[in-house]
Design goal:
Layout (H helix, E strand, L loop, with lengths): L2 E2 L4 H14 L16 H13 L13 E3 L11 E3 H4 L3 H11 L3 H15 L10 E3 L5 E3 L1 E2 L6 H14 L2 H18 E2 L2 E2 L1 E3 L5 E3 L1 E3 L5 H7 L3 H18 L5 E3 L4 E2 L11 H13 L2 H18 E2 L2 E2 L2 E3 L4 E2 L5 H15 L13 E5 L2 E5 L5 E2 L5 E2 L1 H27 L38 E3 L3 E2 L19
Antiparallel strand pairs: 1-23, 2-22, 3-4, 4-5, 6-9, 7-8, 9-10, 11-12, 12-13, 14-15, 16-17, 18-19, 20-21
Bound molecules: 2-acetamido-2-deoxy-beta-D-glucopyranose (NAG) (2 copies).
Protein name: alpha-1,2-Mannosidase
Enzyme class: hydrolase
Subcellular location: Endoplasmic reticulum
């Protein structure tokens, strides 16, 4: 498989944060101070702290692997894929907002800025970079494997944090991607400095892109690209890992379909935006394929080869975590995840009231939803404390002799939920590949250097 070493750690942090935020809704008794404190939040914080040593590099871009006991191993390769550097902001900013410790958000932002600074003159990023020297080791620019969740997290981070800087970075990339990699609503791979096409392939991992485009409001483009991808689905009853666009066929050794979520995830977002029944048709086709082709006694098997529908003796974790979840959400318009802000919960904490579950959920790259209102609520608590302190200072210094009433700062209208929930994902496998180290994110096991002419050779394993 071309995704190895998918990490244990970041999904652990994201999963814990999501479970922490959903725990009250799930009927679990929460401690005083929740959602700004709680046992799962403390576990998430502890797990995230163990990742921090990876960020101690001259560039601020993290190593791809870190030893959970001892930090970065001496002799660890400094070459990390772009996604492995740029996929922290959703979890780390959530953690910082909930706990009040800015370190997590700071390191994630620094890594994002370093990638941004190191984009090429024509505005593209490559696939692998040396985090010590900031030299691009694999110079293929595209939207799929090795890069995907970086773009995903710029958009989701921008929405989660209402952050204009992150969004403007994405919009600049989007311009360059459209200009250099897009042909007839397909996206190809190009050389990051010259913009020349290096691989005319569509990877099934890239199918998150229409969903991401719909999140920035570019629904027409998103729909056209989605329909291209859907024709590939119809041709094979699934999405092959690689599809050679000019030849209109699968790529040697990349004919499998491990029941990845990305196209279904895009269908879910686009359906929220358009209610176009074609999107439900894709959902129906997916359910049928999964039932007819991949169902076995103990689960749902990876399709090893879409040409003859042979199966592999494995079921990937993203099948349940993401594929099934997005299918469910596609067909369940009343799900609380789709809340448009008309419903919400008010929670009383020792610090005041707090609005939660008003919608606008941001899915992390493993499809764990994060409630953006919770971030706001914990931060607001701190801002209010400062506000009160300021008022008190003013009161004592200036208004000593006058009667003074503190105004109740009661305009507390959280729950801004402008967007539908969010996500798109690389959804690689979540496995550890090394004994004592854990790689942080999905990177292709072999960087694709310049043997690009030979299609299908590029992503081959050594094994
Ligand atoms: C790459 O990023 C690093 C860290 O931000 C920066 O020091 C360096 O100047 C950048 N390189 C280029 C060519 O911009
Ligand atoms: C688009 O590409 C052309 C070269 O093909 C270049 O001259 C132009 O500046 C590019 N525009 C953007 C927005 O990247």
């Amino acid at each position: 498989m071309f995704f190895n070493g998918l990490l244990a750690c970041l999904p652990v942090v994201g999963g814990l944060l999501s479970a922490h935020l959903l725990s009250k809704k799930a009927g679990i008794e929460v401690e005083v101070g929740w959602p700004c404190s709680g046992p799962l939040l403390r576990m998430a914080e502890e797990a995230a702290r163990k990742l921090l040593p990876a960020f101690q590099t001259p560039t601020g871009m993290p190593y791809g692997t870190v030893n959970l006991l001892h930090g970065v191993n001496p002799g660890e390769t400094p070459v990390t894929c772009t996604a492995g550097i740029g996929t922290f902001i959703v979890e780390f900013a959530t953690l910082s907002h909930l706990t009040g410790d800015p370190v997590f958000e700071d390191v994630a932002r620094k890594a994002l800025k370093a990638l941004w600074k190191n984009r090429s003159d024509i505005g593209l990023v490559g696939n692998h970079i040396d985090v010590v020297t900031a030299k691009w080791v694999a110079q293929d620019a595209g939207i799929g494997a090795g890069v995907d969740s970086y773009f995903e997290y710029l958009v989701k981070g921008a929405i989660l944090l209402q952050d204009k800087e992150l969004m403007s970075m994405f919009l600049e990339y989007n311009k360059a991607i459209k200009n250099y990699t897009k042909f007839d609503d397909w996206y190809l791979w190009v050389q990051m400095y010259k913009g020349t096409v290096s691989m005319p392939v569509f990877q099934s991992l890239e199918a998150y892109w229409p969903g991401l485009q719909s999140l920035i409001g570019d629904v027409d483009n998103a729909m056209r690209t989605f329909l291209n991808y859907y024709t590939v689905w119809k041709q094979f009853g699934g999405l092959p890992e690689f599809y050679n666009i000019p030849q209109g066929y699968t790529v040697d050794k990349r004919e499998g379909y491990p029941l990845r979520p990305e196209l279904i995830e895009s269908a879910m977002y686009l359906y929220r935006a358009t209610r176009d029944p074609t999107l439900l048709e894709l959902g129906r086709d997916a359910v049928e394929s999964i039932e007819k082709i991949s169902k076995v006694d103990c689960g749902f098997a990876t399709i090893k080869d879409l040409r003859d529908h042979r199966l592999d003796n494995r079921m990937e974790s993203f099948f349940l975590a993401e594929t099934v979840k997005y299918l469910y959400l596609l067909f369940d318009p009343d799900n609380f995840i789709h809340n448009d802000g008309s419903d919400f919960d008010v929670v009383i904490t020792p610090y005041g009231e707090c609005v939660l579950n008003a919608g606008g959920y941001i899915f992390n790259t493993e499809a764990h939803p994060i409630d953006p209102a919770a971030l706001h609520c914990c931060r607001k608590r701190k801002e209010e404390q400062w506000e009160v302190e300021d008022l008190m200072r003013e009161f004592y210094s200036l208004k000593k002799n006058k009667k003074f009433t503190l105004k109740q700062a009661s305009e507390r209208d959280e729950g801004e939920s402008t967007k539908d929930a969010t996500d798109a994902s690389s959804g690689g496998e979540k496995r550890n590949s090394k004994k004592s180290s854990h790689s942080l994110l999905s990177c292709p096991s072999q960087s694709f250097n310049s043997k690009l002419a030979v299609l299908g050779q590029v992503f081959l394993d050594n094994t």
